[in-house]
Amino acid sequence: MKRLSLLFGFIFTAGMASAQDDARMSEAHPSNFRHWSLGLNVGATASLGDAASSPIGSFWGKRNGTFKDNVGGFEIGVQAHLDRWISPTIGFRGSAGYHTISGSYNYVSFMEGDYIDADLNMMLNLSNMFIYGKDYDRKWSVLFGLGLGLSYLDADRFIADGGDGTFAGSVAGPDRALIVNIPLQLNLKYRLSNAWDLDMLYKHTFMTIDGADAHSVPTTGLDMFGYAAVGVSYNFGDDDKQSIVYYSPFEGMFADIAEMKEGYDKLTTDDDGDGVSNLFDQDNNTPEGVAVSPNGAPTDVDDDGVPDYLDADPFTPKGAKVDSEGRTIDSDGDGVGDHIDEEPNTPEGVLVNWKGVSVADAASGGGGAYMPSVYFNFNSATVTEANYFRLAAIASGMKSNPKVKITLTGYTDASGPEEYNKSLGQRRADAAKKVLVQEFGIDEGRIMTDSKGEADPLAKSRNSINRRVDVSVK
Prior knowledge:
The chain is an alpha+beta fold. It contains five helices and 15 strands.
């Protein structure tokens, strides 16, 4: 039994080690972000306690003739903070600041003073508390903090007498008082760069005594101070990393799930029914019955940019210029496409070589002349519409050169038995001859036919080129 326990223990340990070895870091791993930041801000501090309850209180900025000058209104404040975020949602902030304060109470007395405070706050990233349904490169973040701290405060109360006032007391005599405070803060951050943030901050500090503003009024409760400021923060870390407060793990997770679902739907759906799922289909509107490539795009055998199902001539030579229907452009109708025609303005009926240059010699019968080949579909001896244009070029040359005779030689690809291919090649040659005789009025005595079947393939891997009838001029 002991050996069995040891065996299970070994297997469990090995499995844990293997799982650790196979683990990989995701986008949300803490190492991908900056966690520490140091900030400094400057702003205005206002007394919100008893010495701010009248219309001439500090935040109204009003003055009374019996009061000392510069009492009331917003006073200056400055604060620094150090943040450490342990996740995109939760972090801690330690802050310290210096604030001057002043205020007045019911036209009777006024207060002046200052305080130094330090506190520790738990911070919540409100931007990551909700799911918005989309993942994007966030620039803004809203932070909320609640903490506990100490204020080292000196606030002196004076009785208004038309001058500087008569001293009437302070928080704790002539010395400063150490007071426990409870700070609440709301911080709006804007990402200037990976390293720098713009901060807009409001901090509301609750004092744990009534009298922090040197006035004690039993009915009003504890005193408070408000601080509104603007500043900057520097995020410590590598240049390519941004602060973690701008990353939403929930949005990233739901975006990944949505992407996976979309990919799954595409993988299992084939809207155009061509046998290629939407995920891989580059043309999701292929008409029914059209042959497609593995990527779902309609096949284009001659690679002329016109899909075979729209291509009136799917046998155009490589590099040929074609019209919107896929036919080789042959401006002078000599059977040689413009892309290789060195004499693009050959007169009608003149025989040319394979480069489109005139070689016709009516007296000798036009030796050395080139005439276009006629191409056929698989296992077919039917002349397609596109090949009528090729046969028209042949007929035009023959009519302009009455002594010219030709031989039509049929070919096939290597599919099927040799004897069958020999017969198929002959049928293709005969079909081309029939069109020349019946459609274009060429004397059948000027046309000989032959078949080489699958012999002498013109192209190794392009069977569509091997299925043809070649024309030789005698």
